[in-house]
Design brief:
Length: 212
């Protein structure tokens, strides 16, 4: 059954599924970063998601904002590097925007992405078109804003589609920030590894909410 909204416990289970999906994708994320950067993105994300799973398994979350924020803090304290800072900020600032909500719904998804994307752009300094995770995140945020009245599973599906399209479009960009900024035109032809992670995160959330 497609979900209209998730409880706190279901939100924990959804984010645990996100962690599993990122851990499983380590080889492809490492490859994506090797194509344009230093190749550490997959292992960094894997280490972060192992810390996230340990934190989520402790339980005791009163509201959904606390779950997302705990995920962000676990990533920040375990990953290190630019990815730890910006992906940790996505979940911590996105969570903060949910302010004590006891359920996660399409309106919450839009709030999460607004707070999270603003946080990432402020912290990392990238804007759309720089060939970073922002190129998947910002289209996802716009899609979520248009989907606030849909059931959560449908809102997440359109958000994930936008993130995937953003990831694919990042192939054609010349990097001006982030892992590939020194490559110039040689960065054309590969998607940004952070944008790949963003697409996996929202597709996994969508699949969870659709009940698959
Ligand atoms: Mg790297």
């Amino acid at each position: 059954m497609a979900k209209q909204q998730l409880s706190v416990d279901e939100t924990v289970a959804m984010l645990d599924a996100v962690a599993d999906a990122i851990i499983a994708a380590e080889p492809e994320l490492s490859e994506a970063d090797r194509n344009l950067g230093d190749g550490d993105h997959g292992l960094g994300m894997k280490r972060g998601m192992e810390a996230v799973k340990a934190k989520l398994s402790e339980g005791g979350f009163e509201s959904v904002d606390k779950v997302f924020m705990a995920m962000g803090m676990a990533m920040m304290s375990s990953m290190g590097g630019a990815s730890g800072a910006v992906f940790g900020t996505l979940f911590r600032n996105g969570g903060k925007a949910l302010k004590g909500s006891e359920t996660f719904d399409a309106a919450g998804l839009a709030e999460f992405l607004k707070g999270g994307t603003e946080g990432v752009m402020t912290r990392g300094g990238a804007k759309p078109g720089d060939k970073t995770m922002v190129d998947a995140l910002e289209p996802a945020q716009k899609a979520a804003e248009l989907a606030v009245s849909l059931p959560l599973s449908e809102a997440l599906d359109t958000t994930a589609q936008a993130a995937e399209a953003g990831r694919d479009a990042s192939k054609d960009l010349i990097a001006t920030m982030g892992r590939a900024k020194t490559l110039g035109e040689a960065s054309i032809g590969h998607p940004d590894a952070g944008a790949c992670s963003v697409a996996i995160i929202f597709r996994t959330m969508a699949t969870f909410a659709a009940g698959n």
